[in-house]
Amino acid sequence: MSFVEYGDTIKDGDTAIVFLGHESMFPVKVQHGTVTQTKYGVIRHSTDLIGKKYGSKVTCSKGGWVFILHPTPELWTMNLPHRTQILYSTDISLITMMLELKPGSIVCESGTGSGSLSHALIRTVAPTGHLYTVEFHQQRAEKAQEEFREHGVEHLVTVTNQDVCKNGFGVSNIADAVFLDIPSPWEAIGHAKSALKAEGGRICSFSPCIEQVQRTCLAMEEYGFTEINTLEILLRVYNVRTISLQIPDLGKAAEDNSSTGFDSSKPSHQGSPCANLQQGTVQFKSGVPLREVVGHTGYLTFATKSLM
Amino acid sequence: MLKSLDTAWAHPLAAENFVDQCVEVSVRKIIFEKQWFYLDNAIGHIYGTTFEVTSGGNLQPKQEVEETTTETKEAGTDNRNIVDDGKSQKLTHDDIKALKDKGIKGQEIVQQLIENSTTFRDKTEFAQDKYIKKKKKKYEAVITIVKPSTRILSTMYYAREPGKINHLRYDTLAQMLTLGNIHAGNKMIVMETCAGLVLGAVMERMGGYGSIIQMYPGGGPVRAATSCFGFPKPFFDNLHEFPLSKVESLLSGTFTTETLPSDPEENTLVEEESNGLSEEKQTSLQETEEEPAPEAPMEINPAEEQDTMDINAEDVEFKENKEKENKENVREKQMKQWERRKKLKEAAALLSEKNADGLIVASKFHPTPLLLSLLEFVAPSRPFVVYCQYKEPLLECYTKLRERGGVINLKLSETWLRNYQVLPDRSHPKLTMSGGGGYLLSGITVILEKGKADSSNSEALKMEEPSSKRCRLQDLPC
Questions:
Q1: A-interface mutation test, from B16, B381, B423, most A Cβ less than 10 A away
Q2: Is residue B467's pLDDT more than 50?
């Protein structure tokens, strides 16, 4: 296994994802002799994990069970230890497509942060591309490097511990795309431009505040970027539920025996609400939005460097 | 660098709308957006070059022009005294046409319009900016030629031909590619009726590594949009296709290549559809603009119609040659049949391994039967993503998948996308927004324990979807 290549069987040294139930999972480093505690009991790596197929159900000591999943950057994003606020797959998806990333692409990124986006970028540019990621916080840079090694992707990434606004990405004229998620991206636009290939490339800046976006757009224009475009994307999740609504008792017309209006005794057609005569309710399936949703992550500004 | 036979995109340099046309650079004359020009001069230039269309229809690299900053811009403070009576522009349609016919550059025309506008100097600076931008967009014939990509193709299709892609908005497509963990080396199953756009997007993210089996309804897969990506030939070596009509037989073990799906002349179907885009675009342009129908420039697959035989019946020698030709045709057809059978067997074998790394579905069909059957070919612990223009079929799909078991982390979602105008002191979301970009149902496969499916279902449901603590009477989990 690795984050850039699927494997079938769980091996010693793998990072696997333990899935306990809806939205409940955590990563685990598979190692001979170790045990992992879960609320359903103990998982013994040597007997329960190593050699089993990914996607297997594993019964824990207390009787409950879990599923062991192959890691993906998306699962990693949902489960990684946060050292900073991270980017989630919704933004990551749009960034990947709008930067036109694909196998072989060379990407520059700053800041590395907790490595959420980094893993996704590495996956997309593998096996022939490369990610140059810059992080000004020393411990975070080291932790990221360590994780890339553990996940079998270190050959695809170079972590540099420096300030991108002062010293750039450490490379020039080789990148197909540059991504910025830093407090003052306008200070790095010049460095971004020089990191990008001479023939051109794409740039993206992610900022939570509109004021940052304004300054960044101005800087992009000053440095000759074109097709400057700002947008935001939000995820709306729906829970699939069967809903029962009561039919109100509107009484009966004086002389008339048959009920008027909504007749719950009519046979139901396929797809239409099915009436429940006993309880006077109507059932239907609905995609119910969550009570609280993410209303804002940040603005994404994309632009193109062209030769003119 | 632009070469002959490249696939390229031409789009006007209006930042807001990337209204483009996909063209193959072997076709020299392009007509679109009320403009026509020859591509010849573009060859040899680097992708991303901006050209001006001269009066002769030739492309000329655009010179970097210093914006003529009219010093001390005379401008007003608000519009309280500006009356919109339609008479503020002194140049008439005919005047402007005359300027155009004289070959006057777009820039000059815009300048003329400004000078002949009685209200221009009363407008605020912002309003003047907006006015100039609008006129430039209309009169400056500037084209940029860019390399095709999923980004460009998906935004273009959504803007111009959403019906062909089931209204799949580009950000939704972006989600599918990421949620599906599409990357080099995968063995993907793709089922789409989006003119081949989704297939192309998947191919781009796989970079030619791995393999794809495209499931198709009817006689053959539509790959009109796929050809617009301009992939190198090797990308197609590991692209297989398999008819949906054979899926049941494959799953039940009764698959045979004896009866092939309806087999029109191989190229004809693909050609029809591949021409469809430009032709239909031309037609829709026709409808809206009532311009004389231009010739359809795209020609991707020359028809191999060897059947047209003009018979001069008297000529015996001719008849003999015709018989020879007939025999050759029959042989050729047999060869093609044999090829098709062979490819079909290969695709069937690949599917039968039941170890695909993922499944992507984006079609006009109801998703449930597709999912329930195609998931059988996917390995455990792999993602799958289904797109549907409507939410309700996915509600049903979700329920059926729960009943089937073998899937976890089911999520029904849609994305909301908003564009912004960012200008100093004028930043705000843009005025128009897409009402909907479709819905996605995604999940991960796990090992399906067929025997236990029923009895442990409630337990499984508890596992996979613990009931929320606030469980109201009316609110039953499915």
A1: B381
A2: no
